[in-house]
Write a structure and sequence with these properties.
The chain has about 280 residues and is an alpha/beta fold. The chain has a single domain, classed as TIM Barrel. The chain is about 20% helix and about 15% strand. The radius of gyration is 18 Å and the shape is globular.
Length: about 280
């Protein structure tokens, strides 16, 4: 099995879309702040653009995280409800991807996958989530494999909710794959318990933490589905949980056998005993 992910004796901490609790998600600023915390893992999302580029953005449209500036008034407004796949990367870069979060991040742009990967050294682990809801996603898998294989590093993994995209990717690359799943209404019922693993044969499993029976945090968290954490070590694959922001829950899951934790708050979880020596 290829990749440094399987050589680690200690759990890995991943910054979800970068340090997304203190900077606009999936931007250079967010990734830089995650690195400054000493976090060794970065999680990011990619969509395929009209011109075959991989744009680092979570949503399929620009409206939530992008803004457009009026040249006459200087005021910003929400980006039109445009799909990433209908725009070129150059067109997407015309929008501001930071001002929605805070004025101090004005000028941030949506980056290509290559531009983001250039930020990281060989000691950083990167989880690239391919975003597609369609079975016809071979082009996305192909472009992702092409970008990663050219770099020939062992510290990448590719993940997705869509088992079809992982199925295609595995036929193009030996880079480790991870299947993401959760028991909620945003995921098709036939994939909520990780059934997609039978199609894509992932190397790593990425379930939502709230689907497992864990102690309530001090804020009190509602759990959608109770699964016993004793099953983590019986999966036969490393298990990475998303998205865990509570330190007590993160420590509990690591103690139960989790090999990776994905968080919006790397600046907080980095101080846990299980991560502080990384």
């Amino acid at each position: 099995m290829k990749g440094k992910f399987f050589e680690q004796n200690t759990p890995l901490l991943f910054a979800h879309r970068g340090a997304s609790s203190i900077a606009p998600e999936n931007t250079r600023a967010s990734f830089q702040k995650a690195l400054e915390t000493g976090c060794r893992g970065i999680e990011l999302d990619v969509h395929l653009t009209k011109d075959g580029q991989l744009a680092v953005i979570h949503d399929s449209t620009l409206s939530r995280t992008c803004r457009i500036r009026d040249s006459q008034t200087g005021q910003y407004s929400a980006a039109p409800h445009l799909k990433v796949e209908d725009l070129t990367l150059k067109e997407i870069k015309e929008f501001d991807a930071g001002i929605w979060f805070s004025s101090s991040f004005e000028g941030e742009q949506v980056q290509s996958l290559e531009e983001v990967l250039d930020m990281f050294g060989d000691d950083v682990f990167v989880d690239i989530e391919m975003k597609s809801s369609s079975f016809f996603c071979k082009s996305l898998a192909f472009e992702t494999a092409k970008v990663l294989e050219c770099r020939n590093k062992g510290n990448y993994m590719v993940s997705s909710f869509n088992p079809a995209s992982l199925f295609h990717f595995k036929h193009m690359s030996a880079i480790p794959t991870a299947l993401i799943y959760a028991y909620n209404n945003e995921v098709p019922a036939y994939l909520r318990r990780g059934q997609g693993r039978f199609l894509c044969r992932p190397d790593i499993l990425k379930p939502a933490w709230h689907d497992y029976k864990v102690p309530f945090s001090k804020e009190g968290i509602e759990m959608y589905l109770e699964r016993n954490v004793s099953g983590i070590k019986k999966t036969g694959r490393p298990v990475f949980f998303w998205t865990v922001d509570d330190p007590d829950i993160a420590q509990f899951l690591v103690n139960a056998g989790a090999k990776g934790i994905i968080t919006n708050k790397p600046q907080v979880l980095k101080e846990l005993p299980c991560f502080s020596q990384l």
